Amino acid sequence: MWKQIKSLGAMLLYWMLLFQIVRLVFMLFYGQSVLQTGAGFGEILQTFPAALKLDFATACYFSVFPFLLISIEPWFKKGNAIRTIKRYYTGILSFTYALTLGGDLGLYAEWKTKLSYKALLYLEHPSEVYNSASTGIFLISLLIITALMFAFHHLYKRIVNTSTGQAKHWWSPLIFLLFVPPFMVLGMRGGIQEIPINQSQSYFSKHEILNHTAVNNMFNLYISYFENREFQNENPYQFFTAEEAKNRTEGLFECTKDTTVQILTTQRPNIVLLILESWSGDLIESLGGEGGITPEFAKLEKGGLLFTNIFASGSHSEQGMAAIFSGFPAHAFTSVTVQPDKYPKLPSLTQELMDAGYFSSFYFGGQLIYGNIKSYIIFNGFDRIREVYDFDDDLPRGKLGIHDEYTLDAMAHELQNDPQPFFASLFTVSSHSPYDHPKVDAIDWGGKEQSYLNSVYYADSSLGQFFQKARQMDWYPNTLFILVADHSHNSYRNWSRHSAEWQHIPLLFYGDVLKKEYRGKQNSVLASQTDLASSLLQQLHLDKGQFPYSRNLFNPYTKQFAYWELTGIPGTGWKTPTTSMTYDHRSKKFRRLEPPKEQQDSMIQDAKAFMQHIFQEYLDL
Question: What is d(CA 296, CA 108) in angstroms, rounded to the nearest whole number?
Fold first, then answer.
């Protein structure tokens, strides 16, 4: 058995070395681009350790078949055939990995992204690929791949190509076969943490080329393919011509007048964005919920402007992030945040504010690798990013990370030393399952959602503590606070997933920079999280043109509708001020149509056009 373990270890070591060799070649090839980032030598070297976890997960995946061969080899008197199979398998996979490097060398200068599914589509027309590529780059890539194959062959012979020999006891290989798989699975998922590993694990720098270098080529390519496999040939929504869908969708965002109502006393306030994990509208008494769940939020309402008719664009946190920071609507099959190759074409609220002189920061008490959020947040260019690993080790934490009161407290004190104006975002964690907050439960009702309600009650009390401390800070008087949920959650009312009520979420503007006539008021405009970016930028007198799917909530002439995705169904929802419906993609039918009947046809056409155009926009990114 020990020889088998040694043989498997050699296989894993081979892959780890191969990945680092390929990474080094890529970095040397684009050495000038790396140096132009201005990154220090230490940060550049950090690329290699930052890659180790994702590399090891990939190595475990690559070693599943060799593991099976190593498991049965001791039962055969002559293992030459098995070793030959293992050698050919490793050679083919090594060559494939070398080809991914060749693709990166040829494409990265133009696309500034890793090899992705979209790039693979070009291989359907190899002559076009060859004709569009620089002859010099093509030949250099070919030479590099050839040289690497010789190097890999030599590395394999030195490290891997050994026999385990015959087993002295028939049961010895069986122990190996039963004992090792759990460790292989742990390696593939990146450890015992709640969230399996993804590309975000390798993101560590503000410089995209260093992050791209650290991400494992094959892992990234697989995720890109996996997320697009259902839509290899066409948009799943085909109701109109592309031009008709585009024109009808753009019409939904047209305004007859641009008469923005200014609600702020200053054009350059500090901005604190609090993203509330899984907060449903049913948690807020003013939005129709039961009283006593969020008493601190209720206090804030008295000094803020509450939007009562806001709906989450998606059902998951990563979709909420894209909706809030990029104004990009969610869709039912996947999320744009899990595909870093699409980021460069997304607008960024953070970048717009930083261009206007804002210092930016992002706080989260958990692991940002969930939904690949970390890579998306890093791409947005925040000056400072804090996740669970970046806080003091002695801060109390639950299964998913540090409890909200402590991350909020850390942000309140750090902002005291930040340059102003600043844009600080914090994503809460305590109201996410398993809801292991540190306080005694205060709510004794709610049925199966009782734990959820108590976690929200805790998160709400943490907000109360935060605002008590914030009011003592120098930065407080000139700060606009925005509180919005990332998505909704099933509530004690158990709404159908086809209902608009399920997607209802809170949105609150609060702070001393709010004009007095808007404090304690409500706004009933029908809208979505995607509209936050445009609304905020227009309050700051900044251009919102980069956000075509984000409306201005403070323009009374803005057309009112809300769209959301239904991941599990899959499908989409649509609501106007008078009616709502959902579309079930599997049955190709609209459901829960509400009166008035005379408006249903026009609404259905709008919804169809929007679904088709937005999904095409996603595919074209």
Answer: 49
